[in-house]
Specification:
- The complex is a heterodimer of chains A (110) and B (114).
- Chain A is mostly beta strands and 110 residues long.
- Chain A has strands spanning 4-7, 10-14, 19-25, 31-37, 43-50, 55-58, 61-66, 71-76, 85-92, 98-100, 104-109.
- The radius of gyration of chain A is 13 Å and the shape is globular.
- Chain A starts with a strand and ends with a strand.
- Chain B has 114 residues and is mainly β.
- Chain B has no helices and eleven strands.
- Chain B has strands at 4-7, 10-13, 19-25, 31-37, 43-49, 56-57, 64-68, 74-78, 87-94, 104-105, 109-113.
- Classes of the chains: A mainly beta (110), B mainly beta (114).
- The A-B interface holds A 1-2, 4, 30-31, 33, 35, 40-45, 48, 88, 90, 92, 95-103 and B 4, 31, 35, 40-45, 48, 50, 56, 58-59, 90, 92, 97-108.
Chain lengths: 110, 114
Amino acid sequence: SQQGEEDPQALSIQEGENATMNCSYKTSINNLQWYRQNSGRGLVHLILIRSNEREKHSGRLRVTLDTSKKSSSLLITASRAADTASYFCATDRDDYKLSFGAGTTVTVRA
Amino acid sequence: NAGVTQTPKFQVLKTGQSMTLQCAQDMNHNSMYWYRQDPGMGLRLIYYSASEGTTDKGEVPNGYNVSRLNKREFSLRLESAAPSQTSVYFCASSDLTGVPEKLFFGSGTQLSVL
């Protein structure tokens, strides 16, 4: 069963705008990861945030984690056409299983 | 670096046929995984291998078998394909045994079972 669920399912923004997507999960975690999937390709790891961290940055990406609410958000600033993709959160449930949500599809319009 | 290589990229099978999906990684990773991706359901773990010679079932193992041939290669076999196995299959690897902190994915195999 899915541990994480992303919201919204789809997002359409203008180039240069920011994109925010959220992930909620059900049980306690060690870490939470975000992945990107371009159409027809495999997933690519973007960023990992540990359960004792609240915020993390990587380039134009900002991830927050609120363990009390069991939720995380991914912010992409100054979006570009190349950011058009599906974004997935992944949480660990036990020693080797990563549970992926169904993803948020982001479309960046020129 | 090639990373994780999957073959074939596309395959069409008839119900009852068998086939093996191949996966190889050149990053000297210990752990390897097989996932399937279906619309609206995210990725679901089929099988996992922490090291050469060891395999464990994931969430949806029924109808599949795996072989960890060596450290580089991890194959997925469908013995008698069913339409419910129509999906996109991804192989992934991680350099950690245990809780994976970064998975490297192949480009996927799109499988249709008629």
